[in-house]
Protein: SMC-Scp complex subunit ScpB
Organism: Pedobacter kyonggii
Amino acid sequence: MLNHNITRHIEALVFSSSQSIGMQEIILALNAVFNEEFTETQVFESIEQIKEKYSHDDFAIELVFLNNGYQFLTKKDYHETVNQLQLHRSKKKLSQAAMETLAIIAYRQPITKLEIEQIRGVNSDYSVQRLLEKELISIDGKAETPGRPILYSTSTLFMDYFGLNNLNQLPQLKDIVKEENTVGENVE
């Protein structure tokens, strides 16, 4: 393992990947390059070394396990700075309509466009198209209903973008609704 210095190769794989990269993808790449069989244990040991390296204050990024894979992310101390950059790149922001559509898909997936439109009460063609272009949602087959409409679900990029390992980590309605937004008295 050390003769190949796979830790640096794994670091390069994670760095160059635009999405989180899974253990099996790492192993396949290493096996192809070095023409030998690496184990999950060997790769995991190297990943732990990389995590340790980036845990020091000298680095603004850290290695994070996210969506069943590994990805470099900015440390929380720098989120406000990075957020300022994102504000300036407003062209990549999602409109209110797209955010509503994305939320409906995230909580009700797999879902058809007709069902989205019934919930929103307006045509959602443009929002669905933009979300597909941004790869935040994907086509998840066809429904077994008449006309066999397309089913939409969130993508792995959605999971990466919102920092989720699984859909159970989506906020629940009770976590979002504030007491000052309720009507009437709360009687127990």
